Amino acid sequence: MKQSETDPLSRKEQMIYVNQFQLSKDYVFIDYHNGGMLHSGIWSRDTGQLLFLNTFQYGMNPIIVSDEGHSVQLNVNYLNRRDNVIITPIAASSMTGIVEGLKDDDNSVIMEITLRSRN
């Protein structure tokens, strides 16, 4: 951790710094910094296959969820490891027109996403 703060940029770009690591029943979620970029990945614990990778240069590194033509960017704030469930707040402005009666200045919407289980 100390190196991630004190190393020069040229050294940091050669290193991988894990920002967040979470395990669910069937998935591995990792956010890490490498090459001046922020990466988010989801791997299958069963096969070891990379299922999702997103790379951002600045700010938060969201995953993108799409359903019935609507796409929302979100961060994995809470992961229920036993049930493969992601729970995260989403700004109301991103959900207007999707959730009936929701206005841009309403409180965030809590979204629960259940990932497919291998069982």
Q: What does this molecule look like?
A:
- With 119 residues, the chain is mainly β.
- Helix content is 11%, strand content 47%.
- It has helices at residues 2-6, 9-12, 92-95; strands at 16-23, 27-34, 37-44, 50-56, 63-67, 70-74, 78-80, 85-90, 109-114.
- The strands form 3 sheets. Strands 1-2-3-4 form a 4-stranded antiparallel β-sheet, with no helix packed on it. A 3-stranded antiparallel β-sheet has the order 7-8-9. The protein has a two-stranded antiparallel ribbon with strand order 5-6.
- The protein is globular and about 50 Å long.
Principal-axes shape call = globular
Number of helices: 3
Please bin the fraction of helical residues: 10-25%
How much strand content do the residues show? Answer: over 45%
Secondary-structure-based class equals mainly beta
Radius of gyration: 17 Å
| Uncertain regions spanning at least 5 consecutive residues | none
Sequence of strands across the biggest β-sheet: 1-2-3-4
- In N-to-C order, the SSE pattern is HHEEEEEEEEHE
Average predicted local confidence, pLDDT: 78
The profile of the biggest β sheet is: 4 strands, antiparallel
Distance between the termini: 38 Å
Number of strands: 9
What attributes characterize this protein structure?
single chain; 119 residues; mainly beta; 4-stranded antiparallel sheet; 3-stranded antiparallel sheet; 11% helix; 47% strand
